[in-house]
Design goal:
This protein is an alpha/beta fold. The protein folds into two domains: 166 residues, 3-Layer(aba) Sandwich (Rossmann fold), CATH 3.40.50; 65 residues, no CATH class. It has nine helices and ten strands. The strands form two sheets. It has a six-stranded mixed sheet, sandwiched between helices. It has a four-stranded antiparallel sheet with strand order 2-1-4-5, covered by helices on one side. Strand 9 and strand 10 form a beta hairpin. Bound molecules: adenosine-5'-diphosphate and magnesium ion (MG). Adenosine-5'-diphosphate binds next to strand 2 and helix 1. Magnesium ion (MG) binds next to helix 1.
């Protein structure tokens, strides 16, 4: 298996709070990788570092063969849905995506590309509506369309279904499964176990900044001698400390 993401001895503190504590993990190409942990475990901090939004105190991140030093190169094949998702609510969905198509200087016909993404995320009928009038689920699908603007090989998603109703969650998961089946590696952060159980090929569990388990879901269940991922999680992590 070819490694696409390697995190080595990663550390990040906010004052006295050690958010990421000597984290080591790797993701193989093509995987649907679940990055799990309770609130405050350090998921968002790790993702901020992974996506170049924040510098670690020390440690190393490699994405494919490129070193993390060359941020502009990485962003060419990375798609991200960050934790806080600000939208320009006065824009229409189409204007928003065209704006990012320009920002990423995507090749070819931007209008056509944006149309394809609107179709893929089921927003074609709402493309001329202002984002301010979009539902939460529509905004989240628009966020996914934005993350796909540069045809990323890796998608990094920070709790992408948070706050969505069951239908909205299913819509996003279906789209992600489809992308993964076409070869996109997915790094999916979540604290909701049932949704990960039939989505991810491999998972890592972090707690208080530390890796506590990594492997296939079956391996983790066998290791903890329990029947569900939720039981694994409850056994290995401390109660929500947010
Ligand atoms: N900007 C910040 N300033 C200070 N502490 C922070 C900041 N961001 C996160 N933290 C703390 O770092 C820890 C990890 O947070 P975070 O990475 O957001 O975890 P998660 O995404 O898993 O909920 C928590 O204890 C959180 O309170
Ligand atoms: Mg978070």
């Amino acid at each position: 298996m070819e490694k696409i993401i390697s995190i080595k001895n990663l550390n990040k503190s906010y004052g006295a709070v050690k958010a990421v504590d000597n984290l080591n993990l790797s993701v193989d190409k093509g995987e649907f990788f679940g990055f799990l942990g309770p609130n405050g475990a350090g998921k968002t901090t790790t993702i901020r570092i992974l996506t170049g939004m924040m510098e670690p105190d020390n440690g190393n991140i490699e994405i494919t063969t490129l070193n993390h030093g060359t941020k502009s190169d990485i962003h060419r094949f990375l798609g991200v849905i960050p934790e806080s998702r600000g939208f320009y609510e006065w824009m229409t969905g189409e204007e928003y995506l065209l704006f990012f198509a320009n920002l990423y200087q995507i090749e070819g016909n931007a209008v056509k590309k944006v149309d394809e993404l609107l179709k893929k995320t089921d927003l074609l009928r709402s493309k001329n509506k202002k984002i301010g009038a979009y539902s939460r689920g529509m905004k989240q699908r628009l966020g996914l369309a934005r993350a796909l603007i540069n045809d990323p090989k890796i998608l990094i998603l920070d709790e992408p279904t948070l706050g969505l109703d069951p239908q909205g969650q299913e819509d996003i998961k279906k789209m992600l499964k489809e992308l993964n089946s076409k070869g996109v590696t997915i790094f999916y952060s979540s604290h909701i176990l049932p949704e990960v159980e039939n989505l991810c090929t491999k998972v890592a569990i972090i707690d208080q900044g530390k890796l506590v388990a990594q492997g296939t879901i079956q391996e983790l269940k066998d290791g903890a001698k329990v029947d569900t991922l939720t039981e694994v999680f409850l056994k290995l992590t401390t109660p929500n400390h947010d």
